[in-house]
Design goal:
single chain, about 140 residues, alpha/beta, Ribosomal Protein L13p, Chain: A, four-stranded parallel beta sheet, 6 strands, about 30% helix
Amino acid sequence: MKTHLPKVNLDQRKWHVIDADGAVLGRLAVQVSDILRGKNKPVYTPHLDAGDFVVVINAEKVRLTGKKELAKEYMSYSGWKGGEKYATVEQVRAKQPEFLITHAVKGMIPKNRLGSQLLTKLKVFKGDKHPHAAQMPAVLVPVK
């Protein structure tokens, strides 16, 4: 018996907008990654890109539970000796709040070419304005 391979119609991809105001970061990232992969559709196949586009607004208002706001650190490495840098959530939120959501979602999708392709369908913006109104995105309520 052969494995059924569904036809993924690339023209039928939908756009969703999620307001991150007051949403918990991890729960929001799970919801976004499921939509990006297409796990909310009956044609989901692990090795195919059957997901939709996701626009996340108000990235700076996302919330972390417990003491993560003070204790969690993001590490970056330049490749040079002593080039390790650490930034707290507060510093990242002040400089580039979009990174908080992008980094969390990136950790929840496959680490291969498919994952890189899925990340291009994620659009994160600070503030409540976004340039994708022409795509008529459907409003989704994040899990609180």
